[in-house]
Design a protein that fits this description.
Blueprint (H helix, E strand, L loop, with lengths): L1 E3 L2 E3 L9 H16 L22 E2 L10 E2 L35 H4 L6 H34 L8 E4 L5 E2 L5 E2 L5 H4 L3 E4 L18 H8 L16 H5 L28
Antiparallel strand pairs: 1-2, 3-4, 5-8, 6-7
Helix pairs in contact: 1-3
């Protein structure tokens, strides 16, 4: 059910009603009717690769297995990543299902190791997340085609990012709650061709930089009379060696005795 300017519109269960595809069509339609009254601003936030809740979608034999919580990919993409398991293995870095976690805080050290059944469920969940992202790829392509068709691509800034990382068994943890590296890292790609060619910038940036960056793109950010959280990334994009730039930042997470998954959290 989508709230469209105050009107609730119900979608069904047909393949064309897959949420990411519906949002893709709505985003393209917005561009098609808004291009002539620039500037316009569009935010599209599809669910993938987040897990589904209420009710939780779980392919494992036991729906109580927290490692099997996942999302349904678009029907056209179901199973495409499981066809070749060697090509898309579940990542198992040294932090995965650690044998010895006595160096971890007490809230983490008390979590049991994953069983083989847990790992099998987690692998299915990981594949489904990958498959769900294929519809997101289609959404990005649809938005780009709409910008090209309306001749607005080259004067439109495109920002691709996410709200959080995710732990897939690292430190015996799942979800996004703990402030480990796997939980705080997110992708960030910004396309603004008038700021120069492609470059990779290694300075640390934060999600609270997004609002001032967007305002700066729109030409409405004045540092003379405003105090904002974060910093516009446009000066950094113009000059990756700009100084001064932040060298440290604070990451914190809330206290919660137990998450809805049943994993102990801080």
């Amino acid at each position: 059910t989508i709230n469209d300017k105050g009107t609730l519109i119900n979608y069904g269960s047909a393949s064309s009603d897959y949420q990411t595809d519906v949002l893709s069509r709505l985003a393209a339609n917005f561009i098609n009717i808004s291009w002539w009254r620039q500037p316009f601003f569009l935010v599209t936030t599809p669910l993938p690769p987040h897990i589904e809740l209420a009710p939780m979608y779980n392919e494992c034999a036991s729906t109580n297995n927290i490692w099997g919580a996942t999302i349904r990919p678009a029907p056209r993409h179901m199973g495409v990543k499981t066809g070749d398991r060697t090509k898309f293995p579940l990542p198992r870095p040294p932090s995965f299902n650690e044998v010895n976690i006595f160096d971890k805080p007490a809230w983490a050290a008390g979590n049991p190791q994953l069983t083989q059944d847990d790992i099998s469920c987690l692998e299915k969940s990981y594949w489904r997340q990958l498959e769900s992202l294929l519809a997101l790829d289609d959404l990005v392509g649809n938005v780009r085609r709409s910008l090209i068709a309306t001749n607005t691509l080259n004067n439109t800034a495109i920002i691709f990012t996410s709200d959080n990382g995710f732990l897939h068994g690292q430190h015996r943890l799942t979800e996004k709650m703990p402030a480990y590296e796997e939980g705080i890292r997110v992708p960030l790609i910004i396309r603004a061709p008038w700021l120069g060619g492609a470059k990779t910038i290694s300075q640390p940036v934060l999600n609270n930089d997004l609002a001032p960056t967007i305002a700066d793109f729109a030409g409405i950010l004045s540092y003379a009379n405003q105090v904002v959280d974060g910093r516009s990334l446009i000066p950094l994009m113009k000059n990756p060696l700009i100084s001064p730039w932040r060298k440290k930042f604070l990451i914190s997470h809330w206290f919660e005795a137990e998450s809805f998954f049943g994993i102990k959290l801080p």
